[in-house]
Amino acid sequence: MINIPHNNHNTAIKNKIIIVTGATGTIGSAICDHLIKAGYLIIAVARNAEKGKQLFENSNKEQISFRSLDLLNNKAIEQLFTDPLLQQGTLRGVISCAGILKRGQTETFSIEDWDTTMQLNTSGTWYLFQNAIKKMKKQSQGGMLIAIGSRWNKGAKEAAAYAASKSALQGMIASLQKEFAGTKIRPMLVSPGSVASPMSKSVNKAIQAELLSPNDIAAMITYVLATPHRVIFDEIVIKAYNYDLTDQHA
Ligand SMILES: NC(=O)c1ccc[n+]([C@@H]2O[C@H](COP(=O)([O-])OP(=O)(O)OC[C@H]3O[C@@H](n4cnc5c(N)ncnc54)[C@H](OP(=O)(O)O)[C@@H]3O)[C@@H](O)[C@H]2O)c1
């Protein structure tokens, strides 16, 4: 794990720590930006340290610290929770946004691609949350666990592994909600439809304007994080009203 340390975090902000995985991605980077504006201290996680450095170059360094790690490696996830920032401050939430989509016909889809998809999208989220729960219990202040799912959890053509990995999150989060009901630990699932990204640049401009923006998801997550402990959400499904690319592929 390569750390890009920033040691100038003040005490107040250290008590508002959020871990965001997938921080170099389309949605994860928007979530980081919004949470910085909302006054949190972000531990941003992804593999590509160079991209992380570039993306957050102009962000308030006091509010973001990048950690380069491979979430396919369970040891690295454990190590994340021994981070000096987490020893000094309070973990308020974890947003599991790292994810991969591999598509292909069933007969030729490799078992390696199946396993990697399940390992990152499902098991990685589970292990991240398991470690976070231990930390949050020690802190006795609760916290929020947000998994980023997908509308494809209902099944999508040539995306069986992805759909399975995301529908597994539905069962996982519903179960955690039952287990932690009555505590201040709040597990939630946010399932977006298709988001405007570099990939959707091929779609014509009028349609592009109608697509869900990563900022729409980031703003919603910022709101969810700010809700009081008494509030819980079932799966939050968010999609573009007029044109959701998901429906073209599902
Ligand atoms: N885009 C959409 O339309 C859409 C719709 C519904 C749901 N979602 C879900 O939203 C989440 C984010 O999607 P996105 O479009 O922002 O994806 P993206 O742009 O492809 O970003 C994926 C992120 O995951 C990280 N990542 C991938 N493999 C990793 C690994 N082994 N270890 C650590 N980090 C890893 C990537 O960083 P590095 O490569 O630097 O590691 C990157 O930060 C995913 O869970 C996705 O399934 C996306």
How would you sum up this structure, described in words?
By secondary structure, this protein is an alpha/beta fold. β6 (143-148), α7 (160-180) and β7 (185-192) form a beta-alpha-beta unit. It is built from 10 helices and 8 strands. α2 (26-37) crosses α9 (214-226) and α6 (111-139) packs parallel to α7 (160-180). It is globular, with a radius of gyration of 18 Å. The chain has one domain: NAD(P)-binding Rossmann-like Domain (Rossmann fold). An 8-stranded mixed β-sheet has the order 1-4-3-2-5-6-7-8, with helices on both faces. The protein has helices at 11-14, 26-37, 49-55, 74-80, 84-88, 111-139, 160-180, 205-208, 214-226, 245-249; strands at residues 2-4, 17-21, 41-46, 64-68, 91-96, 143-148, 185-192, 236-238.
Kindly list the characteristics that best describe this protein.
alpha/beta, single chain, 250 residues
Write down the CATH class. Alpha Beta
Order of H and E elements: EHEHEHEHHEHEHEHHEH
If you consult CATH, what is the topology? Rossmann fold
Categorize the overall geometry. Answer: globular
Number of distinct helices? 10
Quick one: biggest sheet? 8 strands, mixed
What would you give as the CATH superfamily? Answer: NAD(P)-binding Rossmann-like Domain
The overall average pLDDT, rounded, is: 92
Q: What is the tally of beta strands?
A: 8
What is the rounded distance between the termini?
Answer: 37 Å
Q: What share of the residues does DSSP label as strand, in percent?
A: 15-25%
Question: Nearest-angstrom radius of gyration?
Answer: 18 Å
The set of bound ligands, ions and cofactors reads: NADP nicotinamide-adenine-dinucleotide phosphate
What is the spatial order of strands in the main beta sheet?
Answer: 1-4-3-2-5-6-7-8
Low-confidence stretches: none
> In the CATH hierarchy, what is the architecture at level 2?
3-Layer(aba) Sandwich
